[in-house]
Amino acid sequence: MIPFNMKKEPRPIRRTFRRALRLLCPACGESSIVQKPFHVKHHCTYCRALFKREEGFFVGAILMNVVTSELIILFVCFIALLLFGAKYENVLWVLFVVALLFPVAFFHHSWSLWLAFDYLVESLPKYER
Questions:
Q1: Is residue 77 within 8 Å of 69, Cβ to Cβ?
Q2: Contacts for 35 with CB less than 8 Å, ≥ 6 apart
Q3: Tell me, what DSSP letter sits at residue 52?
Q4: Is the distance from CB of 72 to CB of 102 less than 8 angstroms?
Q5: Which residues neighbour 127 within 8 Å (Cβ) at sequence distance 6 or greater?
Q6: Looking at the whole model, is its pTM more than 0.70?
Q7: Between helices 107-122 and 88-105, what is the axis angle to 10°?
Q8: CB 99: neighbour CB atoms within 10 A?
């Protein structure tokens, strides 16, 4: 039972993850989480939701990036070997390139999806100056 003074506002899952895929703040969807390439903003400039948290908070984002990269590599390997019948030696070169490029391309999205997951579970704290 939630006490009367701790009302929890509904957080639609689809809308939150749509915002995350577009690299927007999961709380308001008004500003980007990206400051510049490979740099996430400290907080949302619109709703002041805090993106940069304590040390170790984004280990989950790193884990998400690694696991997703491994799944993509497996998917590409199976497609290349089973559907196209490519030689294994040639597939290894393709997998090497995918293993180098995908984690870099997915960097911001892993952070954004991790923020969205955290927002759905416990909300994002507000930045106080």
A1: no
A2: 41
A3: S
A4: yes
A5: 42, 43, 44, 48, 49, 50
A6: yes
A7: 60
A8: 14
